[in-house]
Write a structure and sequence with these properties.
single chain; about 800 residues; mainly alpha; three-stranded antiparallel β-sheet; 33 helices; elongated
């Protein structure tokens, strides 16, 4: 290794006594300025926090970088860089060995922490990683300017000319007549480059060791295993600093190797770990992972991290699928999947690759999988939710694309009909797939016919591609619904809410897929009709089996019982969300499908409207307790009593809003046909009670119900209104009977029409001021318009 005095002597030598080759007079231009400033690597280690520590570290880092560059430049001793790097690397290997020994002996973290010197082993490994990072960074060409500044020479001396050398896809600057730069440039070709890659590979092997990433970062991750007392917070802080420095080191290695970092396989081995730490609970590790991912994306000419992951999506997804088979050893897989889909935002781009992945995830969300790995249910559901959102996003674009494609086909056919007969004889083989008409003469084909044939081939290929992609989107959405549906009835509130979100997005995706299928069918029929009109001898293709295209209603048929079970669980939060989900899916699927289901299972919904939140109702003895499977927790009998009045009030308001939404929409209104009188009686009874928290919701529900049958709503309101009113209006003519003849006063309050239709309620007593206000409001909003229309 050359000494500093020798380096200074060479720098001061006359330029005419030595010449530098083109290879030695080039230097890699640093990263773009915006990336270099925002994600600058290497960074000052997190333990240099005292005043003056930054300047001290810069001096130490300069020495380490100089050592690394001189070791790499010393070609007389092969492997000198690897030999020196093994010294700090030994501290990492010692830490890995100790953690591995802890696992063999089932030792607690508290005992291990005391035995290894209260974190001294981790801090030594962090320092060693920092030394290795700076030594490798010293080999990169980004430090040339720093060296020249350190020794008093400007990097801009001499006349230079910039150019681009495309051997490794890196930017280079050629500097002529700059003798001092020749000292810092080193030949990285041939054997030297291989030694550098081998050295970085050895370091990465230790950096990516599972023992290092198994070190706990927070007390909650060890409280289940260690019961000997609380660990010192410095232990978790030291572990976080070690992982942060290692992550930054991966970015430094990428800067040093450029695109060779990817071609050597290092990107594939580290990308998975980076995605996992993007959603780490520790902010510093999360920020370091984000910074390194952006640096790697820039070096690989990717506009964003999403494009980087997309370029390596097959590897990432394959790794996830492999690790899903061994969840006991890889419990972090769901988090990586969630990071790739949500943070990176490439779910819609890699959707066709997710079919196999969804099958594996669905197995883990089945009864056996949830029983074996209960702590992974929510992470898996989050991943399924992201996949479903991507499916819904892609599915919403399919109908418009299919319709546009149909218009394009019709336009081409209309143009061909106008030019009928021009190229008829030369186009007889347009749809003859995989064969040629042998007796056709080559000279009979004109350029117009060839263009016509190419257009038809393009149409057929596009139609087939769209069909394959549509089926893939529908299959993934269906798999997501199947995986999440059982968890709608879960007692776990978080899992239930995520499952409900999956159902909404999945049902919407299936509806759009079916809509796109109808457009594709029209396109196919149009093409077939044209072919048969022109070429009767061509046989129709009846091979396609379209029986699997009907996905929406079968999926909804499986989901419905679990929605009912969710309501029966009587969790206020999940019940309110379930009401919104039912309102959405009924409007998507159509009300006719749900008419019989509301007639059969509606009692569980309407039961929530029969009792005022401010009056407790004793449970009848004959009410059956829902069947509980052996592995589920049995609900307490006093669970209903623990629900607050405001929570119950919000549930009833949400249920009234659901009724309003279903009734106002013509597509979903048929769902209430079989229970219309029952629902109308319940809503009128709530409206007449004058409960302020339900006033607006009951008005909206009555307005919606009146859009279906305004006469019935008027009768229910007038029956109570005119029974209490003294000044009754006289009939317009003698031909009309009086109000009392139409609606005779009931002998008791239990004989009102709304009670006979809706059933007996508890706590919703009639408030005549509310009756009068409700009748007046409905008369102005509904009945007056009905009278004039």
């Amino acid at each position: 290794m050359r000494s500093i005095a020798e380096l200074n002597a060479v720098i001061k030598a006359e330029s005419e006594n030595s010449e530098c080759s083109v290879l030695q007079n080039r230097k890699i231009v640093s990263l773009p300025e915006n990336v270099h400033t925002e994600y600058e690597l290497p960074r000052v280690p997190p333990w240099f926090v005292n005043i003056g520590s930054h300047d001290l570290y810069q001096a130490l880092a300069g020495i380490l970088r100089l050592v690394g560059r001189c070791l790499f430049a010393d070609s007389q001793i092969e492997g000198s860089l690897s030999a020196i790097a093994d010294i700090p690397l030994g501290h990492l290997r010692k830490l890995i060995s100790e953690v591995r020994t802890k696992g063999y002996h089932s030792e607690s973290w508290l005992s291990w922490y005391k035995r290894t010197g209260s974190g001294q082993l981790v801090r030594q490994a962090s320092t060693a990683a920092c030394i290795l990072n700076e030594m490798i960074y010293g080999i990169s060409d980004q430090v040339i300017a720093n060296f020249q500044t350190m020794f008093g020479k400007s990097s801009l001396s001499g006349n230079g000319e910039c150019f681009y050398a495309d051997d490794n896809g890196e930017y280079f600057e050629f500097v002529g007549n700059a003798q001092e730069e020749c000292v810092w440039n080193v030949n990285k070709g041939g054997n030297a480059r291989s030694q550098l890659i081998d050295c970085i590979g050895n370091i990465l092997h230790e950096y990516l060791s599972s023992e290092i990433w198994d070190l706990p970062l927070e007390s909650s991750s060890v409280s289940h295993f260690d019961g000997e007392g609380n660990l010192n917070s410095y232990f978790f802080h030291d572990n976080a600093m070690l992982q942060q420095v290692i992550i930054e080191g991966i970015g430094i290695f990428n800067i040093c190797l450029g695109k060779e970092f990817s071609s050597s396989g290092f990107l594939h081995s580290s990308l998975y770990m980076m995605l996992e730490n993007v959603i780490c609970s520790n902010f510093h590790i999360r920020r370091a992972s984000d910074a390194v991912l952006h640096v790697i994306s820039t070096i690989n000419n990717c506009p964003s991290v999403g494009h980087l992951v997309l370029a390596n999506a097959d590897y990432v997804i394959d790794s996830i699928c492999q690790q899903l088979r061994h969840l006991d050893l890889n419990p972090h897989v769901p988090n990586v999947l969630s990071a790739m889909l949500s943070y990176v935002g490439v779910a819609d781009k890699v959707l066709p690759l997710l079919e196999e992945l969804m099958r594996a995830v669905a197995m883990e969300l089945e009864i056996l999988g949830r029983n074996q790995h209960p702590h992974l249910t929510t992470p898996f559901l989050k991943a399924v939710a992201e996949i479903t959102k991507a499916s819904s996003k892609e599915a919403c674009a399919l109908p418009e694309k299919a319709e546009s494609f149909l218009k394009e086909v019709k336009f081409k056919i209309s143009n061909m009909d106008k030019e009928k007969g021009k190229h008829f004889s030369s186009s007889s083989h347009i749809m003859d797939i995989g064969s040629e008409v042998s007796d056709r003469k080559p000279e009979s084909c004109s350029s117009g016919a060839d263009l016509q044939e190419e257009d038809w081939e393009s149409i057929l290929f596009n139609l087939n591609d769209s069909r394959i992609y549509r089926r893939a989107v529908g299959s993934i959405a269906g798999s997501c619904i199947i995986a999440a549906t059982p968890l709608i009835a879960s007692d776990d509130q978080a899992a239930c809410l995520i499952a409900l979100d999956v159902v909404v997005d999945g049902i919407l995706a299936l509806a759009k897929v079916e809509e796109a299928y109808k457009q594709e069918s029209k396109t196919k029929e149009t093409v077939e009709d044209f072919i048969l009109s022109r070429f009767p001898h061509v046989l129709q293709d009846n091979v396609d089996d379209e029986t699997g295209e009907n996905r929406l209603l079968p999926a909804m048929n499986k989901v419905w019982p679990f929605l009912v079970a969710c309501v029966r669980n009587k969790n206020p939060v999940t019940t309110r969300r379930c009401c919104r989900v039912i309102s959405t899916v009924v409007q998507i699927c159509g009300g006719e499908f749900f008419a019989r289901r509301f007639h059969t299972d509606g009692i569980h919904f309407w039961k929530l409207l029969t009792t005022s939140p401010f009056q407790k109702k004793s449970h009848p003895k004959q009410e059956r307790v829902p069947l509980q499977l052996p592995y589920r927790k049995s609900s307490n009998s006093s669970e209903d009593d623990s629900v607050g009045e405001i929570s119950s009030l919000k549930v009833q308001a949400e249920l009234l809003n659901m009724i309003s939404d279903l009734a106002r929409n013509k597509r979903s209104a048929p769902a209430l046909d079989a229970v219309f009188k029952k629902v109308s009686g319940l809503v009128v009874g709530i409206a007449f009670s004058g409960v302020k928290g339900l006033l607006e919701a009951s008005v909206n529900a009555l307005v919606g119900l009146a859009s279906i049958d305004p006469d019935l709503i008027w009768l229910l309101l007038s029956d109570v209104y005119y029974s209490r009113k003294k000044d009754l209006p006289s009939p317009p003519t003698s031909e009309f009977p009086g109000i009392l003849e139409i609606l005779p006063p009931p002998p008791s309050s239990k004989e009102y029409l709304y009670v006979l239709y809706g059933g007996q309620t508890f706590g919703f007593d009639i408030d005549f001021s509310a009756v009068e206000a409700m009748y007046t409001k409905l008369h102005d909003q509904v009945f007056t318009k009905q009278m004039y229309t």
